[in-house]
């Protein structure tokens, strides 16, 4: 520990006295030694392995729900179902069947985020390149549009959480023990499923997706379901439930394990630039990031208040009339009913942030650097948050402009897995265009 204190003192003085050009002269081995010490300290002496993500086919090393063991057959089925717009079979408005899927709001091009401030399922038209070109159809009644009052979270690294959604309401074990009073409309919680599994089942209802035996036969899925669920009676095998379990199994394998930071942890000291390494030092030390963003997915299982703003019905955000945005703003507290949880939201993973383009549960930032500066300054966007609710890591960090730039480089580039297309099928089982299949999206995606 004495070594890292000495090294950090040296780096802090160097940071405060030099411009970026001179700063590049910091000895590479000094940075690597400093990072090694910081990693060791943050991991409870475990070292690099504490932060390493497993290979996506190393199922034994991926956290999973005991009620839904990961198998290659489930993963293969879940990959297809998540992307297949044939799943969009239960729209509110006639004539919009088979135009949307899970991947409509979780496209790979946006790092499995929405690619826009709000994801739009049914009621959206177009897609653009990464979802940024999807807009609400003016002919669609606003109260019927499938648009959410919070930012769509990424599907990456979901395996490292036992609850799902920003307020964590999905999941019947671990983190949610003692919250049973809020499970009235979540029967899967009572069955003991973890959040990813519950979300994959409940999400079909929320997002107007539909699967039954007719779907299975129409789109040639029977063999895939049979391989994935051989021990489930045929009468129950082709259903919302099994589809959800397959999607959840696939989602658990969506790991950003080829990011430069991951390669660095596995021994390639050239995988990150000097600036990214300096940013990693800030991440582990003065920036206090690792206190919440820890473990392989760089996220804990807790909820924190950082005062991010919410969707407010502005020109680029739509709040359906049936949504109480004030309740949404309460975050975890809205679910638990505990005032101590008010305005707290689940810690997100930090991988592939830059691909999504929007940050915070209300998508109130479009720049990673601005988020870093915001947390450094500690002036909340949401002035309703009581001062006693804020996370200890909010404000008072004292980062210099150079440190902010370096930390931004680490978050933007060192944590970006550039090869996520490995998780996407070449074609859908139905043959429909994906990740969206409305007429304009088909043009945007080159399907027509």
TrEMBL record:
A single cellular component GO annotation: cell envelope
Classification via Pfam families: CCP_MauG
Molecular function GO terms recorded: cytochrome-c peroxidase activity; electron transfer activity; heme binding; metal ion binding
This protein's UniProt keywords: Heme, Iron, Metal-binding, Oxidoreductase, Peroxidase
Compartments in which it is found: Cell envelope
Main location: other
InterPro entries documented for this protein: Cyt_c-like_dom, Cyt_c-like_dom_sf, Cytochrome_c_Peroxidase/MauG, Di-haem_cyt_c_peroxidsae
Domain called Cytochrome c: residue spans: 274-415
Protein name: Cytochrome c peroxidase
Taxonomic placement: Bacteria, Pseudomonadati, Bacteroidota, Flavobacteriia, Flavobacteriales
